[in-house]
Amino acid sequence: MGASGSPGRIRHRPAATLADCLNSSPAVRLPIPFSCVLLALVAASTFTSGAWAQLRPIFVLNSLDADVSVIDPASWKVVKRIATGKEPHHLYLTPDEKSLIIANALSDSLTFVDPKTAEVQRTVRGIIDPYQLRFSPDMKWFVTAGNRLNHVDIYRWDGRDLTLAKRIATGKTPSHVWIDSKSSTAYATMQDSDELVAIDLPSQTLKWRRKTGPLPADVFGTPDDRFLLIGLTGGEGVEVYDVSGPAPRLAHYIPTGKGAHAFRAVGDRRHVFVSNRVADTISKIDFQTMTVVDQYPGPSGPDCMDLTADGRYIFVASRWAKKLSVIDTTTREVVRQVRVGKSPHGVWTLDHAPRQ
Fold it and tell me: What is the pTM (predicted TM-score) of this model?
């Protein structure tokens, strides 16, 4: 779905704060600036068992290695690899926030991992082709997109176990799922039949289907449930559908870059990032004006993203480079890359900005 991009030029700025000293690369830290030494001495007395020791791991799914790289955000090293099933692509937190669910599409299984310690808790088998996954806001439904088998599965969730309620045949290659804030409708994109479908959750029936642009991938709903944004991986932008009426209506088209693919909300209920996998960029969209308001580098096929709690750093999977890339949103520069496994896809950390 696009040629490999180059990482581009990576620049580092001198450290000025404690966070900058801790987050700077080895190239910056050697020799260590005297200001950083003083800050470190202050930190030793202030944060001995405090905030820096409590940073949660960053998880990167290596789709072609059947495992997960666990990155320590203090040292920026991969501290372990967690074996999963084949082709882990996406992941999602359980409603009680005690387990991170990794969906293993080709192994028909889910791996539950502790999001704080990165310890495997259990494996649930018999979940057929879970490519992408999502809980409903009311925490009653768990929906998966069967990417290779052309179906969407709806499960009931009792707080621990999943029970299949309905398997719904859809178009070709279901890709991503979004559920509205009322937990009444699930939307899914069909990557190879170029469609968007809507499913009524209470009755588990197909409500409608709508043709889209080429290779629709991720889907993102605005907080008022009025609009759905669709990343066109086979195009050069994002389609916006008004779904407030009985039938969907194409309301806007937002040019972002070739291979628009995955979304990540900024957390202010107004902006969302989209990774442009072929253009090697990340666009910031204002979904009140439906315009691009900022642009960032996205090295080597940017895919899924997460965002630090303060909104400063984007973590993005550089799919073609086997790396996690870190982008500083204030300088619009790539400030770090960490080597992970083959075809990194899902990215997640518990220390994140709000997801809406």
Answer: 0.85
